[in-house]
Each structure stands twice: as C-alpha cells, then as structure tokens.
Amino acid sequence: xxxxxxxxxxxxxxxxxxxxAVEVLAAGELLAFPTETVYGLGASALDAEAVARIFAAKGRxxxxxxxxxVADVSGARALTSVWPKEAxxxxxxxxxxxxxxxxxxxxxVPEIVTAGRDAVGVRVPAHPVALALLRAFNGPIxxxxxxxxxxxxxxxxxxxxxSLGDRVSCILDGGPCTxxxxxxxxxxxxxxxxxxxxxxxxxxxLAAVLERPVDVATVRVAADGASTDSQRSPGMSDRHYxxxxxxxxxxxxxxxxxxxALASARDRVGVGRVVALLMQQPLRDALGLTPDDVVVPMPxxxxxxxxxxYSALHAADARGAVxxxxxxxxxxxxxxxxRDRLARATR
Length: 347
Known about the structure:
It is a single chain. It is built from 12 helices and 15 strands. It is α/β, with parallel strands linked by helices. Strands 1-8-2-3-7-4-6-5-9-10-11 form an 11-stranded mixed beta sheet, sandwiched between helices. The chain starts with a strand and ends with a helix. Mean pLDDT is 92; it is low at 224-230.
C-alpha cells in the first residue's frame, strides 16, 4: 500500500480532497488529517475492524483508548449514554476546540475504541479541515495522534509520513497545527470532574465554567498498561511523546548535573550530536555547550512554546541527535501541559 498526500487549504478545504478522504474512511482504510492540536490517524469510530488498523499501524497497545472526533454536540451525544449539564457547559465554552470529554459510552461504540471501558472520550476539533471532513463523512472518526506509539506526535504532514510511511493510506496536508500539543482530557464519568491529561485548556478554565473544583489525576502508566488507571485516557504512558535521542530535562537554576552528564558522554556523542532546547540563551555557556552543538531558542510564552515543541523534537531526530537537553519550563498552571509532555518525553 502506498500513501497518498493530498494538499488541502487549511482555511477553505477543497471539497474534492475532502470527498477523496471520505472515500478512504468509508473503505475502512486509515486517513491522517490535521486538527488544531496534532495530526490524527483516523478511521470510522463505529467500524471495529477499521479502528483495529489504527492500533496495528501505531503499534498501540489494546489497553490504550482512542478519542472519537465528532462534528458537533449532537454527534457527541449519539456516542454517549449520559449527557450531563456539565458536559453541555464545557461544550458551549470550549467546542470546537482542544478539549476531550469522557462520558459513559453508548452501546453502539465498539469496545476497541474505549479499550473495554464503559466510558468514551469525545471531541469537536477546531480545525476547518477536520470539521469539513467530519461533516462530509457524517459519522464519528476515531483518531489518536498519527505516529508510532510513544514517539513524538506529528504537527505536520511530513511528520506523519516520516513516522508511519505506507501504514496510512492517505494524508490530508493542511499545514502545521496551530495548538501543537494534544487536547485536555477531562473525565465527567465519575462524581468529580477530573483532568486526566493536561492541555492548553487549563484546570482553572474548566473549574470556572463548571463552577466547581476540578481534580487532577497524576497517573503514570507502565508500558504494559499495568496501572489501574491505564485505560482512562490516551497519553498516560510513563514514556510518551519521546524523540529517538536520549532526552534530558534540567532545572535552569541548577544545570550542574546536566553539565557533568554531558561531559562524561562526549566521547559517545560526537560532534554536533547534541541539541539543546533553551528559553534562556545565556544557558548555552552555563551548560558547557560547544559551537558544534545545536541550540534551539524556545518561546517564553506557553502557547507559542506548545506550537514549537514537537517540531523541535522532530527536527532533533532528523539531525540524528544523540542527546537532547531541554530547559524545564516554569512551575505555573499555564505551563502544566508542557511540563507533562516533557516529563513523559524525558528520562
């Protein structure tokens, strides 16, 4: 199977390209498409065999659920057995947008989508291409990130092609994603709203809309899914969003540990094989980096940082980096999603 790449205008998608993408989905094949967060690897959410192809293409374990993308609230309600007022409040405030809501699933949703749980994650994406696709397909699309399991999520069509190659039938190329990291996942299936995966919609924003506290589940799942919470949300693996290089996260106020580790690794690293993602450029000297090492300036604004992060990690892989050094971001809620991704990507 060869992969077809269809360029599509990210604001006014070409109906012919969308129609071709719908044909791919209707045939039970895999389609990669842009959302505002990352590129998704899509299949009909109501076709268990097609969804199984997602798991096979990604090397994704069966315990890890996938999110069902829908065109609107009515599409979400059709996949859930309960639609509480809190779900409607969040939908009104944040949809279309980077928020996934977990609710009790309707019996029509195949168990493979939910990893056997009785709850399903639903989302209305904000990207014009994704919305045009969902409306034309007239059904839910199951779509985790379009990359190999645990690796860096794709924010361009080229990232998808590099990661999956001919494992995907077609890629809709709508340019770079505008948010850059995965959606916030909030679980409304229990008695207390709980953020399972942080995203650029923060816990404070959710609490303000719900007019009640929102918990945070700090869950890290082993590679075999051994945690009791392993099936609650995608993106919970202890090792996730990770580049091929050995990746280190360091405290900018205390760089000594990284300096010592890098000094001892120089013989195996070689010239030009260290990439540093730094918000504070003076740290280059403090870390003992050489002129041959690559320093990637990272934004000091969390939204801009999120847009840049995965592209920077993909670029490090493309350079053949052996070690990636990343400055730890601030300990504020606005940076919580980025800290989560970095913690899972680094040792």
